[in-house]
Design brief:
Two copies of one chain form a homodimer. Chain A is mainly alpha-helical. The first copy, chain A, has helices at about 10-20, 20-40, 45-55, 65-70, 75-85, 110-130, 135-145; strands spanning about 90-95, 100-105. In chain A, a hairpin with a 7-residue loop joins strand 1 and strand 2. In chain A, helix 2 packs across helix 6. Chain A is globular. Chains A and B meet through helix 1, helix 2, helix 3, helix 6 and helix 7 of A and helix 1, helix 2, helix 3, helix 6 and helix 7 of B. The first copy, chain A, binds a DNA duplex through helix 2 and helix 5.
DNA sequence: ACTAAATAGATTGATATCAATAGAAATGGA
DNA sequence: TCCATTTCTATTGATATCAATCTATTTAGT
């Protein structure tokens, strides 16, 4: 038979070494683990920290803009809010101006958790920032933003 | 009372704008959606494509090195293999040299799926590559690797 | 050979992610 | 006002992710 079509190993190596999607997913997993480990004493994951920090605003935002800011699906946001609500750190209330919508806000306890997490974020971020050359962080942020 | 401690909004904006973890997670989600959409006709997600491509080797690798290459937890790899095994694209066999371990290999059908997916990857990757300035892709890969 | 330590994966439980779909409420046009 | 459309969110089902824990096997020290 021998009618099987194969991709040469050299092509595999090329894809592995160049695929931006793979490189970003890989870095995302590594950074998530790093921040999850660091933030664990505060009781937060990296995603929960980012979400709660994005809720620390003068006015409670609706879900749509928050999901867009985090570049996540709205259904993902709905799910991500559940554990934070259970812990009493986030409040989800009906928007009186538009009863389809919800308004998200931090509770006093939620704000206290963020206060505890902030210095951890600062030191962890400074650590990974130091792994990049001067100006590398800003360059990286711009490159990543260009992909979105 | 007013004993609630708050983080100033300016700090929130600073964290949002500078957090490399958030920027990488955000880009990871956006890129995953982009490649998932593109690869859907081939029946693969971006992660499945990367995993199967990494199995396209002369010798079937054990799980550990594959998980390390993809920077993912070994338990994640175990779970990710399940749907691919069910579809008959990947074979997981006991390593005769070390009966604790497994050897991963693509089936003929799995290789055929990869062949179908490769041109989709190429065009999609060229498209996002074009969003970066000249030399930006290589720079980005190096910056991301420095974080891992 | 025997046994303690190390290693390779699997399982469980919790959260994260998104597509597809459904529901409720607001909006706009007739 | 009425109805079709749009908008905002929730639910379901599938996969992805990791920590904690477990089993089986190999390796190393004796």
């Amino acid at each position: 038979m021998s009618n099987s079509i194969e991709i040469p190993f050299s092509t595999t190596l090329m894809v592995r070494d160049t695929c931006l999607c793979l490189h970003v997913q890989r870095a995302a997993r590594a950074l998530a683990r790093l921040f999850d480990d660091a933030l664990r004493p505060a009781g937060l994951t990296n995603g929960q920290f980012s979400l709660m920090m994005s809720l620390n605003r003068p006015e409670p935002p609706p879900m749509g803009p928050v999901a867009a800011l985090l570049a996540m699906d709205q259904t993902t946001l709905t799910a991500a809010l559940k554990p934070l609500q259970r812990k009493g750190w986030v409040t989800v209330m009906e928007n009186p101006r538009d009863r389809r919508g919800r308004l998200l806000s931090l509770t006093t306890e939620g704000k206290a958790v963020l206060v505890k997490a902030l210095p951890i974020w600062k030191s962890t971020h400074a650590m990974i920032d130091g792994k990049l050359p001067d100006g590398g962080a800003e360059r990286l942020r711009q490159d990543l933003q260009a992909l979105s």
